[in-house]
Specification:
- By secondary structure, the protein is of the alpha+beta class.
- The protein has one domain (11-139): Jelly Rolls.
- It is 15% helix and 34% strand.
- The chain has 2 helices and 10 strands; from the N terminus they run βαβββββββββα.
- Strands 1-8-5-10-3-2 form a 6-stranded mixed β-sheet, with no helix packed on it.
- It is globular.
Length: 147
């Protein structure tokens, strides 16, 4: 028996929503920053980028603004977060979810301790830097480039 499973999908964002995230990012950069951890894997024509939120003080969450993503990707979310993608209400992510995400987005997350997000896409990149340049035109601003 095949049950219909509703799963989240992330659409391309309208310009006004992307602009809102850009303004939030400027404001957020004036506050103390949380050092996120990143892991990168290039294997068999696939790039996977994992972002890990560290342990936070009890009751605290981390506000994250992502880079502008210009290609479709697959996201694997593990943990609890609220995701703003331009809809009326944020998408609540909880537990383990696999999400199809379209090109043309710049998301904002409110994430809990230990939250993990894997972004993956097919690529012919030979280095992590090449893969980063492929998925965003903001690679020079990535926190992982400061690690």
């Amino acid at each position: 028996m095949n049950d219909i499973v509703l799963r989240p999908a992330i659409p391309a964002m309208p310009p006004a929503a992307i602009d809102l995230v850009r303004r939030l990012e400027v404001e957020n950069l004036t506050r103390p920053q949380t050092d996120l951890r990143f892991e990168h894997h290039l294997h068999a024509g696939l790039y996977a980028r994992t972002m890990i939120v560290p342990e936070l003080p009890a009751g605290r969450q981390c506000l994250i603004t992502g880079a502008f993503i210009r290609i479709p990707t697959l996201l694997v979310s593990c943990g609890d977060a609220l995701l703003y993608v331009g809809e009326d209400a944020p998408i609540a992510l909880s537990g383990f979810q696999v999400i199809e995400a379209q090109a043309g987005r710049k998301s904002a997350f409110l994430a809990s301790s230990g939250y993990r997000l894997v972004m993956a896409f097919a690529t012919s990149a030979a280095t992590v830097e090449q893969a980063e340049e492929e998925f965003t035109n903001e690679a020079h601003r990535l926190q992982s480039r400061r690690d």
